[in-house]
## 1
Amino acid sequence: MRELIAQTVRDMPPSGIRRFFDVASEMKDVVSLGVGEPDFVTPWHIREEAIFSLENRRTMYTSNAGLMELREEIGRYMSRKYALEYSPKEQVLVTVGASEGIDVAMRALIDPGDEVLVVEPCFVSYRACVLMAGGVPVSVPTSARNDFRVTASDIAPRITPRTKAIILGYPNNPTGAVLERGDLESLAALLRGHDIAVISDEIYSELTYGENAHVSIASLPGMYEKTIVLNGFSKAFAMTGWRLGFACGPEEIIAAMTKIHQYVLMCAPTTAQYGGLEALRSGDAGVQAMRAEYDTRRRFMLDEFGKMGIDCFEAKGAFYLFPSIARFGLSAEDFCTKLLYEKRLAVVPGTAFGQCGEGHVRCSYAYSIDSIKQALSRLREFIGEL
Amino acid sequence: MQNGQSLQREILTLIEKNAKLTAKEIAVYLGAEESAVSAEIAALEKARVICGYGTLINWELTDDESLTALIEVKVTPARGKGFSSIAERIYSFDEVKSVYLMSGGYDLAVIIEGKSLKDISMFVSDKLSPLESVLSTATHFVLKKYKDHGVVFGGREQGDERMIVSP
């Protein structure tokens, strides 16, 4: 029979996380540090507002770009948090999670054969979205040597006349790395000289620890005009299942993204949009409480790794640590598989996020301290027996 | 400490939720020195910011038969002492768990625990009402505690419903 599945899709490897999930979910008594979502339930005032919208018969489509009220609120949020001014009418698109933003941004920018620089290790969808849009992903590896911060000299040699865009995800999943103002300035100095769009996935922007709050690359001189900022409600407000995100950027690009979005999705879920509105209006205290809790766990996990003799740089963002397992002489994949089978502990191999993740595993601290203690005692046993 | 929060405040936030944390654990959680945490806690205890360490117990799940009531009390404040002297007379009884001065329809909210309905009635009729400055009382019995000190009692067991691994 004739092959019906498209070549691009056949060639696309399944997500390394998916494969791991399939094994883990078949097992009993698995303890996990493998999730990429908050353990908190969405704060009640947000859920309550969404329920209220249903009681008020808000069950129809919204405008393609999203509820005007929500876009206005997003505009205010970007201004007060990141000193970025976007016109709600022309420069804000409400998406189905930041995930849709990634897809739609790629499709809006890429012509067949265009190259997109993908800074790795990174969220699993970046490469796939480039490929589905007919583009060519070009890996920009980062390493523990620089605490997984990408530098201008990592990027510069990979720029070609075909480079259309670069996608950055900081605070980073899976490494927890952040880019601070100084890091961003040197990237901006390079990128200003090139006609390359910047897709900045800032979904973890609310989750940074330490002195410095998140800085968006779009806020640096000369970058606003070429940067699409992707963000959303999933991580900051513990709203993963609501599937709600947004994209902000230059009018022309947002218009192009909105065109694709309207054909594919019509609009983001209406109920979720009402929830999102409440989140932006009165969710700050909740975000701060959750961030404090993550920070506690982050410090605890780092301390425990230190006591176990596991190398790990002090990640200051998201809710992941990315320790090195190189000294145990196993590949990341083998380490995780063995750990899962022998100790029923699920962590994710660094290679699921790009080849340069080899030698590392991703451990999430979106768990209660008690769960983390239990998981780490299994890890301690495991490495003791290696 | 981030967001301008002082170490003191961060310690209080942690131990308000979990009094069992040791200074060593708190030090790790907050990225502080253990000795600094111990010193802070000692100072807070001395200043009576930390007034005690208790345990939140859902007595309904034990075979204990005790009963809680909230008594609204209207009183005449004493000249020069306001409500304090009468409040003191009331809170000195061991069975009285809390006394709050309220705005609104009455003056003092008195929360009391007793072994039985009779116990509590006796307290109201023999001890509380006869006090000279007490004008009236209204006793409300607690039928069920759903949530206390921020903790939901007897709520459904909430397991981790997330997928085991996700991107």
## 2
Amino acid sequence: MLAYVLRRLLHAVPIVLVGSFITFVMVSASGDPLGDLKAKQPPVPRAVLDAEAHRMRLDQPVLERYWHWLTGIPRGDWGPSVKKIDIGAEIWPRLWVSARLVTLAVLLALALALVVGVVSAVKRYSAVDYAFTAIGFLLLSMPAFWLAILLKQQAIDLNQATGSTLVYTVGEASIPPPTGFWPTVADVLGHLVLPTIVLAMTAFPPWSRFVRSSMIEVQESDYVRLARAKGIKRRKVLVRHALRTALVPLTTVVALDLAVLFSGAVVTETVFQWRGMGSFLLSAVRDKDIYAVMAWLLLVSVIVVVFNLVADLLYAVLDRRVRLG
Amino acid sequence: MVEITRAGGDVPVATPRWRLVARRFLRHRLATASLVVFLLLVLLAFVGGALWHYSYDVYTPDNSHPPSLEHPFGTDATGYDLLAQVLRGTQRSVEIALFVAAVSGVFGSVWGAVAGLHGGKVDTLMMRVADLVLIFPAIAVAAVLANNVGASSQGWLLIGLVLAALTWPYVARLVRGLVLSLREREFIAAARTFGAGSWRIIFRHVLPNALGTIIVAVTIIVAVAILAETALSFIGFGVRPPDTSLGLLISQNQTAVATRPWLFYFPGLFIVLIALSVNFIGDGLRDAFDNTRSRSRR
């Protein structure tokens, strides 16, 4: 098992490295970080431009710049920023903000997918099944940002009608934050409610379809029939035999969707004006802040790769038939 | 291309495959209705936009008018007629989505077929490349790549290319999986025996047999691309003014949702209508191409 984990980790490292190199070249070629400075009126002196170009390492060839950047990261040096922000100090708190949104949304979406998928499979071709299918298709066809604005407006109306802030609609926490541990937690959770709902709503429909079809498949299998024939209760067979088997491939599906979820988080955070990874990315791209964009891409891609690895391992743990190798 | 359907057991009867698929699709009422809705929307966007007496980029004297006979979708604060803008936005969004689906469908199919057919090291390497694309959130990469497009008139083509570059791996994975099972079949071995080269096998034998799967995948990508393009335009890196798209319209009008709701609801409704009808068409096609489903059960 340990050897397998290590070998998979070794496979994952080149993927991240190649990915980071390609994106580094791509991001470097996507625009001149000093474009704004050069366009300034009255013109900025030549010496200042040269100094800035040197600070941004633009006087080095791309390969050298990549190497410089990559080797700096273990030391906590994420590279220079156009806006002179400390990228490392800026991005970690924001990653924490976005990670709690994505994590909660995945959990909520999983719960929804399980309930909807199992109920649809058990009551196949019933009114409930058709209703769930219709809702699933509708959510699948709805832009996340539209749903987000819609819910936000409903919440604002609700708050205005009751004359108090029942649901938070702006930001990831109150400014200034409340004092004490539990009030802070409650405040953060309160701000998470709407964005989590939006993200989970847009993520769960394909998952619930997946649960539904694998539940149907499993239900028709011989061992589930045998379990029923032995007189084990229907509910127990469903949970112990059918659901367990159906759940295993779901881990892979969810892990593969993680990058998509981060995309959704960017849009959702924009609507709710969070200071998370979303606004970090958007302003970095807008400012052509190469190293800030690279920090974002590297962190998120590492998270996606690691979770795919975890999903594979989980697969092996849950399904004994899978041979590690 | 024919599909052999057994009538009575031992007498093979050939039915033209396309007619069979079309018949099965048309029996799927929701999918058929969706196809009609989608075609009507496209027709409305491409023809209706040209016929409508307001243009998307010309101010009307009416500012912030609610929907009326004169302006069925109302006007915005600067006096643009929203119907004209929504039609233009629909046109742009549909153009981009169809372009994305075509490019990523063709590229992904060939990539997947080559990988699956070759197997071994080539397959591993090609699929690693496909996986590589999928570890990055599409919206981030698309924002970086599309940031320099600006408001050029050909900008939508570049946005289409960027989105295609991010969606082809889905097609490639599907086609590869299919090819892995196809290549063990006798007719491929037979073609090889007759000395057919790899490319001939791919284009004459493998891809035609994978066509059903590819068409379904490409249909779904149309829906995915519509949503991706609108999201990209919403965060400000997609289609830019003076051109417009449905996502851009929502982005521009998101603060108006409380005071002038029509500005927010109509563009969104169009996105949902397009994506929903495309998804239903894809669902109907999936059933229509599915040969494993015996028809007596339906």
